[in-house]
Design goal:
The structure is a single chain. The protein has 2 domains: 158 residues, Rossmann fold; 140 residues, Rossmann fold, CATH 3.40.50. The protein is 40% helix and 21% strand. The chain has 10 helices and 13 strands. It has a 7-stranded mixed β-sheet, with helices on both faces. Helix 2 runs parallel beside helix 9 and helix 5 runs parallel beside helix 6. It is globular and about 60 Å long. 47% of the residues are buried. Pfam families: Bmp. InterPro entries: BMP_lipoprotein, Peripla_BP_I, PnrA-like. It comes from Rossellomorea aquimaris.
């Protein structure tokens, strides 16, 4: 465990300013803990959670804690016990694997609000956050189909329940009804070896744009695509920095912004229990920077579609995104 603290030892003037900054912040938020299944240094999902933690620390002047490799019930339960001793009253479990443990242990720690992703939240002090991934996948699929020269594009997904996968397929088909979308699965968020095997299969099938929809392997996949002169749609983070001539755009989930939003709600005693969904309209889902290879006209078209979706809830095919 590494512990981050912020101490403000400032002059009287600055203390006065600090008081002004805090006047709209409730005392309901105490300290905050984060559990990640792998690492906060993956540059993608784990890093997003850590950045969110630092934003909370800065905004609310609380102590924050995080623990890595929290991937079994015993380690999670021990971490919760430690966080309770540290005065933590908001715990983020950075994935779906935390939901069951949080529901089970929540009764022992009624003073803590437990927050996880993509799971069930059955107790009054548990909440599960869900990004509506279908819509971002739809716009990513449109972009991939628009750029493909072989009429074959691919997805390397972690699991078949990911809504962004079907969104990608439907968006690609909307853009080009003749496009062939090949979907492969790794059954793990972080299995680089298996993901690269799936990539090799897609390349052999002439897919020239690939959507690596997993956390721990998408950077490795994009690096290989760059070497091969092929193209990618980034995932979770804006991955244009991996190569603007390779990454056509990215489907971005702003977990850091979402964590800040959740902390604000806890501070104001306004965080609901149960499953909460978030989308483009909430400012926590977006498309990343477009490659210069994508024409300005198409960028304008996609941006208008996103704007219309935010305003009406309807995708370009006239359907509502219910995933």
């Amino acid at each position: 465990m590494r512990k981050k603290r912020t101490f403000f030892i400032l002059a009287i003037l600055v203390l006065g300013l600090s008081g002004c900054m805090k006047e709209n912040v409730s005392d309901e938020l105490e300290n905050v803990g984060l559990l990640v299944p792998e690492t906060v240094n993956d540059g993608v999902w784990g890093t997003k959670g850590y950045k969110g933690l630092l934003k909370i620390q800065s905004k609310h002047d609380v102590d924050v804690f995080y623990k890595e490799s929290m991937n079994n019930d015993t380690s999670i339960e021990q971490a919760i016990k430690q966080y309770d001793q540290d005065g933590v009253n908001l715990v983020f479990g950075h994935g779906s694997e935390y939901a069951e443990v949080f529901n089970r242990k929540s009764g022992e720690y009624p003073q803590i609000h437990f927050v996880s992703f993509n799971g069930e939240a059955t107790e009054k002090n548990t909440t599960s956050l869900t990004f509506k991934g279908y819509s971002m996948g739809f716009f990513g699929g449109m972009t991939a189909a628009h750029h493909s020269k072989t009429n074959k594009i691919g997805v390397i997904a972690a699991f078949d329940w990911q809504p962004e996968v079907q969104g990608f397929v439907d968006g690609a088909k909307y853009q080009n009804k003749d496009i062939d979308v090949i979907v492969e699965y790794t059954n793990h968020w972080d299995d680089k070896e298996k993901a690269l095997e799936r990539l090799d299969s897609l390349v052999k099938k002439d897919a020239d744009v690939v959507y690596p929809a997993g956390d721990g392997y998408n950077v490795a996949v994009i690096e290989v695509l760059k070497e091969e002169g092929l193209f990618a749609i980034g995932y979770v983070s804006d991955q244009s920095d991996l190569g603007e001539s390779t990454v056509l755009t990215s489907t971005v989930q702003h977990a850091d912004k979402l964590y800040e939003l959740v902390a604000d709600k806890v501070a104001g005693s306004d965080l609901s229990s149960g499953v909460l969904e978030f989308d483009f309209e909430d400012g926590v889902v977006s498309l990343g920077k477009f490659s210069p290879l994508i024409s300005k006209d198409f960028q304008k078209t996609i941006n208008q579609h996103v704007k219309n979706y935010i305003e009406t809830g309807k995708l370009p095919n006239g359907k509502e995104a219910n995933q």
